[in-house]
Amino acid sequence: MSAQIPRSERKPLYVKVVTQPALHGCWSVNISETGIGLIATPRRPSEGPHENEPVEMSFSLPDTGAHVRVHGVVRWRHDTGGGAGTVTALGVSFGAFEAADGVKLARYLSTSHLQVVAAYASEEESRAVRQALDGVATPHFAANEEDAHVLLSRGDMAALLVCGQDEAQALSLVESLGAQRAEVDPSGAGPPSDLASRIVYCAPAAPERLVALFNSGRIYRALGAFPEAEALRESVLQAGREHGFRTEQWRMALELERNLLRERALAQAPVGAPGRNAEDVGFRSPAMQRVMEMVRLVAPHRVAVLLQGETGTGKEVLARILHRLSGRGDLPLVIQDCGALTETLLESELFGHVKGAFTGAVSDHPGLFVLANGGTIFLDEIENTTPNLQAKLLRVLETGDVRPVGGTQVRHVDVRVVAASNRDLGEEVRAGRFRADLFYRLNSFTIDIPPLRERPEDIPELSRAFVEQFNRTLKRSATGVAPDADEVLHGYAWPGNVRELRNVMERAVLLSRPGEMLTRRLLPPALINSAVPRADPTGDGSLRARLHQVERELIREALERHGGVLRRAAVALGMDPVTLGRRARRHGLWKPED
């Protein structure tokens, strides 16, 4: 078995896709781990997302029932026809998946087989079909025409085997599919999403009738009743390959035409000003600007990165930015919370397992490192791993070799590792709770993310970005953040950091009236009661208040300059470390456990 899992391979997939912005009659044509091809019949030409616009998609994976939600960007769009006959094709590249939906899709693509419908098969024929297609395709059996249409409507069937000894019944199904094809696409110019050209006819019929059906494109092969296993197997494989080729050929033709049109438009269009990078939005404080500089510096290099910061500071966001800037952005980003599973389950999830390795292991599972091959794996809360698992992680980091649970075969992977911890891993090593060798391997490039309370300059930009986000997702029209609400947001300590701010803004947008500015009344009462008014060093405040503000800024700057090391900051300020620690705690810049 190959250690490499192909990343660019597209597979046919015909399922209903729900998009936002909404696009009527939208179905998938093909899919890979990095993108999806869509075909739709919009009610009006302007409907749905256009080139370079974001789009949210949700769809179910056939045969598994798994639901996938993903955010993407439209890379190209092509509209043909006009009015009621408009057909729209889109190529969408995947961005962020919801939760573990990216892993669901990767597993589906790596383990899925050809799906085949066998209609009217007798018990003997069913056994023969299963034996002939063993290891090649998964057969689904339909006892009548209605069952066959239901199975075909799933959209993922590569071929239809028409079996049985009732000639009239078999030909009726073939004719009904041909009529359905003409009704859906009378021009024949649409995508090859029907099954008429992939029918393998295994029932009796007059030779002249079979020739007519073949010449008119109604059937793909005519094998006769009870065909040889090898002939049946090869016909299904060829039908699947030809179907995939025709899908890809049609997609490439559309994309080529679209590119020619785009080149003509670009030749006549004025050059616009470059837009602001998305990763810069919300990071306006000097502390986070330095963090972003470090992220951009390390992103192109294949070194392990350790992100340290309190819960909710945005470590996963930074991991996504690292992945996007790494040159691996079109390859998988796999995310695993190491604190969510027991050691045994986490080991199986990360490294995979072979069939029979333990109770419940009914099939081989490749593991997240193999699924992330070529891309990035983000291990959140890595401090929660056990010493035994840490040793295995160290081996993967040093050699790239992964061995599944219960297996003997070693697979080599090329994976960029980004780890995160909400504790100081150096302290965890000194306390004996984390392996020193793994820490030093991860510690080759550490980025410390400051909590939100230490970078209040980011609050206005973040809060407004969240307002825009939730206006879109919640269908609201909030017009911004009022000064009284902004004052409360600045005066709050934010123990939950950016995640807590996000939740607060989501609640406020949800409670807002159309066109309303978010005011103090829309904020949670607990937040309002806990907020402390800001001291204004330029106003007429007392000398005590102004000295308090100056002292806080001096301590904050010293701690940032020295990477949060209290003793070094104390030396720079000419203070006793104990005194500095006491004053830093008073200002909310230090916690006893730090």
From TrEMBL:
Q: Which residue numbers delimit the Sigma-54 factor interaction domain?
A: 281-510
Keywords (alphabetical) are: ATP-binding, DNA-binding, Nucleotide-binding, Transcription, Transcription regulation
Q: Name one GO biological process term.
A: regulation of DNA-templated transcription
Q: Taxonomically, which superkingdom?
A: Bacteria
Does the keyword section mention Nucleotide-binding? yes
| GO molecular function ontology, one term from the record | ATP binding
Looking up InterPro entries in the UniProt record yields: AAA+_ATPase, AAA_lid_NorR, Homeodomain-like_sf, HTH_Fis, P-loop_NTPase, PilZ_domain, Sigma_54_int, Sigma_54_int_dom_ATP-bd_1
Q: Which PANTHER family match?
A: TRANSCRIPTIONAL REGULATORY PROTEIN
| Official protein name in the record | AAA family ATPase
Q: Where is the organism placed in the taxonomic lineage, from the top?
A: Bacteria, Pseudomonadati, Myxococcota, Myxococcia, Myxococcales
